[in-house]
Amino acid sequence: MRGGACGRNRLRTGDGVRIALLAHLRHPIAPPFAGGLEAYTWHLADGLTARGHEIVLFAAGDSDGRFTIDPVIPVHHEHRFPGLEHRGDAGLKAHVDAGYAAACDRIAAGGFDLLHNNSLSRLPLERRRTGAMPTLTSLHVPPYDALRWFVQDSLAPNHRITATSQAHARAWWPDGAPSAVSVLHNGVDPDAWPFREGGDGTAVWCGRIAAIKGTHLAIVAARRAGLALTLFGPIEETDYWDAQVAPLLGGAIRYGGHLSSAAFAAEIGRASVYLFTPCWDEPFGLVAVEAMACGLPVAGFNSGAAAEIVGEAGCLVPTGDAAALATAIGEALAIPRSVPRARVERLFTRDRWLDRCEALYAQLTTANAVS
């Protein structure tokens, strides 16, 4: 067996299992990633394949063809139903539900050892499904009414649940999470986010450009601090972009586009500080970890899991306070770049994340064999 804290429970390299990975369908599971959930699912498929597991990715049909894809729907639903993800649209709901129901049936009949559910659908959580198929559900969003009851009712011997942080788990279970729930921090490959000894004195921000990500507040803080700022990421909410972000661009504030991971790593590594501005209960904050791996200290809002993820590698202030964030930028710049890199190498590596996934898979498959 490979060594490590989870040694006796982990699957050995030669003990590959057949895993169905069920994805969210809003965007393709392909680079450049629309967000952290797409990156998470892609890297999970890639990492598990490299470790000798047989992976079938149940996702939108236009996802990355390097994987074995079983299409849940032919094309990601943002293409067919643009902007309707959070609008309660009946047509979108029927389209997605039909795809997931059929996919769950195929998974149940497909000879898989287990299902790793990364969707935001209630259907894989049904007890009749988790009772028939060992299932690991990874939660990626704060609790919301359309999913909360189904998650909390789904716990069963064949079903385990992960949250991306302690803060995330507390949001779902304020009175304490059940024993079948554990924290599974995301991880990055440090080699893919090269460390640089120094930066060029500028700030950088990355993410889905949407109101909950606070892009405009990063701009306001950077201007107050007198720093140049480059924004990266897909423009998800065009109304927000047009009204609150685009008018603030110009001079030392620019939009750098939506780049591939390699190109983004090169860009982010040149900067001196990362601005992290979630205006919701951020479950994890993968982009902050990517920036930290390059050596960037973080100045950001203390929302959701931010304190748990950033720790000694940054300076956090109350959410929404752009003036305090401007002050935090100066404090973050005083943190040696070795500090954020070391925190990532200690807590948030891809190998550590995959080790933990394999440990959970082993627990599920062992329990299923015994039952």
TrEMBL record:
Q: What InterPro entries does the database record attribute to this sequence?
A: Glyco_trans_4-like_N
Glycosyltransferase subfamily 4-like N-terminal domain: from which residue to which, for each copy?
A: 35-191
Can you tell which superkingdom this protein's organism belongs to? Bacteria
Instruction: Offer one Pfam family short name for this entry.
Output: Glyco_trans_1_4
Q: Which PANTHER family match?
A: BLL5217 PROTEIN, GLYCOSYLTRANSFERASE
Name assigned to this protein? D-inositol-3-phosphate glycosyltransferase
Source organism (scientific name): Methylorubrum suomiense
